[in-house]
What we know:
By secondary structure, the protein is mainly alpha-helical. Helices cover 69% and strands 8% of the residues. It has 7 helices and 2 strands. A two-stranded antiparallel sheet has the order 1-2.
Amino acid sequence: MNVLRDTAILGLRRNNIEVLEQQVRQTRDRFNVGEVTRTDVAQVEAQLAGARADALTAQSNLSASLAIYRQVVGAPPRNLAPGRPIEKALPKSVAVATTASQTEHPMIQSAMHGVDAAALNVKLVEGELLPTVGLTGTLSKRWDPNGATGAQTFSAQAVATLTVPIYEGGETYARVRQAKELLAQARLQTDLVREQVRAQVVSNWGLWENSGGQLQAAQAQVQAAEVALSGVREEAKVGQRTTLDVLVAQQTLLNARVALVTAQRDRVVTSYAVLNAMGRLSASRLGIAVAQYNPLVHF
């Protein structure tokens, strides 16, 4: 999405340069015949210089996005399709999203497994205070090749051992207390992870909803700016508007189009961010036709 956004912005910047170059030529011609002043020419030239600087910045941003794309994907982008928000995969409300995240997010599941492991460790350490029973058995066979009949001897032995702890100096009790404190720490860590996940869901849901309003506002702004620029140009032809008014209207329209491109990108990215915060951003959830990794194969 960053590549698509920066590509579109660079196209807008370059198109703005072409418009300003044409406007510089027209303004210079009008100056030669005395219709405008030197100030008007300087204003257009200054606007053109700024547009070229903005285009260089846009080119730099695009180069950075292309490099990151190559780093992540492994190949340069070619014929990228327009991005679309995954609205159908999102729940209907932030409450539903928050509830789902508390049971499905991998970080929460990992923390819960950590609690289970800590609880079992407490039982293991407490088990050292209990009696233990051990059973050892041996079986041997001996064959004497020097005997006349090749005598064979079998022997078997079984030993049972009962060990009862009498005095261990408090070391085991200390480790029991330590294991219980680690269990409490794991539970607190789970609560912390739950709150972090909940905060991420609420935050990203807010950005998702805000992106919809931003997109609608940007579309309305572009339409209004186009109408305004057309009117200012017509008024400038009859002397009711100055060159500066036209330049300001052009810049307003350009900024609106850049904002629209950015809003379209944010709309797509925030939809994926909500799914990610819920713990559902996976190949299976997205229905991607790829070979999915199965950890049990290498377990």
